[in-house]
Design goal:
- The chain has 5 helices and 5 strands; from the N terminus they run αβααβαβββα.
- With 150 residues, it is an alpha+beta fold.
- It has one domain.
- It has a 5-stranded mixed β-sheet with strand order 1-2-3-4-5.
- It is globular and about 50 Å long.
């Protein structure tokens, strides 16, 4: 995925998500950084060095790293923003993730995000999951598998 095509991809994914009957109104979709400041320089320096050696030419900010590489390395997460006009619970997000047709979505980490700005609490909630090979993978299911392996 080339840097200049990221906005096109975001619009395409948002359009796909809005067509699905997830039970939640989608307001927007975005690619966001998914790493702490401590890890950032080390990860980006390593990736940019590798990409330069491989002759890759698309950029993500200062570093010469393609967005697809950042997504593959789980350094970018895809955030699905829920319309603030409704009230949402965490279970609503999990239910929407279960209904999600991920067959055309890129592999990587996803996050439903809802921010309540209607009352004085102004709280926000999110629900994270992965997409792998066109299927939704829930972190709680992954954790059960990891525990069974021990």
């Amino acid at each position: 995925m080339k840097q200049k095509s990221v906005q096109k991809v975001e619009k395409k994914i948002k359009k796909q998500l809005k067509k699905q009957k997830l039970g939640l109104p989608i307001s927007s979709f975005s690619f966001l950084s998914n790493f702490s400041h401590d890890e950032k320089d080390k990860n980006l320096d390593t990736l940019s060095s590798d990409n330069l050696k491989e002759g890759k030419k698309d950029f993500a900010g200062y570093y010469q790293i393609s967005y697809q590489t950042l997504i593959d390395k789980e350094l970018i997460e895809m955030v699905i923003y829920i319309d603030e006009k409704i009230t949402v619970k965490s279970q609503d997000m999990k239910d929407a993730a279960k209904k999600l047709d991920a067959s055309d979505l890129p592999n990587g980490e996803y996050n439903f995000f809802y921010s309540n700005t209607k009352d004085e609490n102004q709280d926000s909630i999110s629900y994270s999951f992965k997409v792998k090979d066109g299927k939704v993978v829930f972190y709680e299911d992954e954790n059960l598998v990891l525990e069974d392996d021990d």
